[in-house]
Amino acid sequence: MFRSNNRKYNELRPIKIKRNYIKYAEGSTLMEMGDTKIICTATVEDKVPLFLRGKKRGWISAEYSMIPRANQNRNIRDSVKGKISGRSSEIQRLIGRSLRSVVDFVELGERTIWIDCDVVQADGGTRTSAIIGSFVALFDALNYLKAEGQIIEIPIKDYVGAISAGIVEGEMLLDLNYEEDSRAQVDLNMVMTEKGEVVEIQGTAEGKPFSKRNLQELIKLAETGIKQIIEKEKNILGEIC
Hints:
There is one protein chain. By secondary structure, this protein is an alpha+beta fold. It contains six helices and nine strands. A hairpin with a 7-residue loop joins strand 1 and strand 2. It has helices at 78-81, 86-100, 105-108, 126-147, 178-181, 212-237; strands at residues 15-19, 27-33, 36-45, 59-66, 112-121, 160-168, 171-174, 184-193, 198-205. It has a five-stranded mixed sheet with strand order 1-2-3-5-4. A four-stranded antiparallel sheet has the order 7-6-8-9, with helices on both faces. It has one domain (4-237): GHMP Kinase, N-terminal domain (Ribosomal Protein S5, domain 2, 2-Layer Sandwich), CATH 3.30.230.
């Protein structure tokens, strides 16, 4: 199967991560994965949700949205609709879970890190790209807290990466763009730590079910992509845990 930019079936799109993209945020990135572009910010707030008050531990919450012309057709803003779309709600919960899986909340202390992901251009893989960009923004926010003497060490326990994989026209592909994703018979998103521990697997069939063997092969393909992503994170951040 022909892929844009002559990508191999197991090849990631080019990744670019620009740090400190937003002047006022404690941590921020412009995350680019191919033609997908997302602004990720991490904001420190010196309070925690009600259910954590007095427990001497912190929290991470995430929000996700697309600007109206991130896609080929204009989206109506959630604020205009008066409610968060089901898709946005699902993705922001995924981002939050992914980041919380690698943070020591006791070391963070009683504060919340707010992660905001705003998609400015969507070409597939926005949820997985948002996790990658948010992880780097989170690190920079925590590094800010350390520099200010508010925490002793950066409370990240492991690297985390995320990627999509799928079956398109009978062929397994890594890191689907929009055109590939729209034609996929199977679509899978996976989040995993450097230790190889799975945070989440989302696998969906379109049209007809797929076999356990295909699932295992897609997971293996996604794992190769996540290893490459974590190496990219290490090149940017260094050894942090």
